[in-house]
Specification:
29% helix, 7-stranded antiparallel β-sheet, alpha+beta, single chain
Length: 157
């Protein structure tokens, strides 16, 4: 494309070519933002302050009573794979969900996909970088339907 720009003689053709390039850049930027790992993207943006995202997706969990709870973290608590002769390979995987209200819930890993499916958009209000025993990490304050929550960027999709 750069070679094409040098070959173009008149200004109108240059403007057309530049607008095609800008359109291509916009589509590539859109693709990257939709397909990139959001945690890595947030770390990159924190190092390059000129790039800012305004909205993020927050994970939700619907409890037994039908209430949506905001998930602010999770960890794998059990990950066993064993061979049972008459049954074959058996996997036992459990995940512990942490909610913003301070409660936790253990679920089977097969149910974890329901967390990923159930998401809500929130608007970033503030970003703070903290250092603790886990290293340096970014904490976002996100407005979700009028409720402001603090959440680690690792748990944002």
């Amino acid at each position: 494309m750069a070679d094409e720009l040098n070959k173009v003689k008149n200004d109108q053709d240059k403007d057309t070519l530049i607008s095609k390039l800008m359109s291509r850049i916009d589509s590539l930027e859109s693709m990257v933002k939709e397909t990139a790992d959001k945690g890595r993207m947030m770390r990159y943006e924190s190092k390059h302050k000129d790039l800012t995202r305004k909205k993020v997706r927050i994970n939700m969990w619907r409890d037994e009573k039908g209430n949506n709870k905001i998930v602010d973290g999770w960890k794998m608590t059990e990950d066993k794979v064993e061979y049972i002769p008459m049954k074959g390979w058996v996997e036992i995987q459990k995940v512990q969900l942490h909610f913003i209200d301070g409660t936790v819930q253990d679920i089977m890993y097969s149910q974890f996909k329901d967390v990923i499916k159930n998401q809500v958009w929130g608007e970033i209000v503030k970003k703070v970088t903290i250092s603790d025993e886990y290293g340096e990490r970014d904490i976002l304050t996100v407005d979700v339907n009028g409720q402001k929550i603090d959440i680690d960027v690792r748990f944002i999709n």
